[in-house]
Design a protein that fits this description.
alpha/beta, TIM Barrel, eight-stranded parallel sheet, 18% strand, globular
């Protein structure tokens, strides 16, 4: 349990690079009373995913890995099964273009999650109703119209990347309409916070990304904050299931 309000807090969307590694993020999370994070592949490659899985095996605070796989590859199931041998692997992040790839069915059959970075369409969840989907970067121009998808019970909203493209020039007012619309549409049990660290470095900071989020959502009950800052991420990514939570 976290000392922050009595519930574990999870940063549901961050990355690593060869420059910005777990040793840099861990003290930031600890200083801000966060208990762990979900790392999302930044580079669409199998090599990147394997590297992240290796980091997760070395660092307890990395609670889950969202990797990448070519969902258009007929043999993608073999890659997913390789990833699944790592207890912290939870799903993939994918940018869609054109027709839906058959690999979505492979995710659904394995109970894996899907983070959608671009190109989300209702056809994804209509065609694969058992697939749990998170729309990344809700609250920014990269996820316009996300609230209209709240009618699908298996779609979640990840409020992340708020300051990524304006790390020193943002105001909470510019995020509030989309963020609060998402919170009203999805409800706190299907909304989660992600920092998008280190995308805004060195101009912005992890703490400023959190400040943008807290200012955008405004005053909330402790129960709502529990969902947004950890509870939703724990349920969506089944963080208890891997023995690392």
């Amino acid at each position: 349990m976290s000392a922050a309000g009595g519930f574990p807090r999870i940063d549901s969307h961050q990355h690593f690079t060869r420059q910005y590694l777990p040793a840099l993020l861990f003290p930031i999370l600890k200083r801000n009373r966060f208990d762990g994070s979900v790392v999302v592949a930044r580079v669409p490659s199998v090599e990147e995913t394997r590297w992240l899985l290796g980091l997760a095996a070395e660092h307890d605070f990395i609670r889950a890995v969202v990797g990448w796989a070519d969902l258009a590859d007929p043999r993608v199931g073999d890659v997913l099964d390789e990833y699944r041998r790592h207890p912290k692997f939870r799903g993939v992040c994918y940018a869609f273009e054109g027709e839906l790839p058959p690999g979505l069915g492979e995710l659904e059959r394995r109970g894996l999650t899907l983070d959608v970075s671009a190109g989300f369409t209702p056809a994804i969840v209509e065609g694969f109703p058992g697939l749990q989907v998170a729309i990344d970067h809700v609250g920014t121009g990269r996820a316009m119209g996300a609230s209209s998808l709240a009618r699908y019970a298996n779609v979640f909203a990840k409020i992340s990347g708020l300051i990524t493209h304006a790390p020193t020039q943002w105001t909470a007012a510019e995020f509030q309409p989309a963020v609060r619309a998402a919170l009203a549409a999805f409800g706190p049990q299907r909304v989660m916070y992600g920092s998008d660290w280190p995308s805004y470095l060195p101009a912005g900071t992890w703490k400023e990304a959190l400040a943008a989020f807290t200012q955008a959502i405004g005053p909330q009950t402790m129960e709502t904050r529990e969902h947004l800052l950890g509870g939703t991420a724990r349920r969506f990514y089944r963080l208890e299931a891997g023995g690392a939570a």
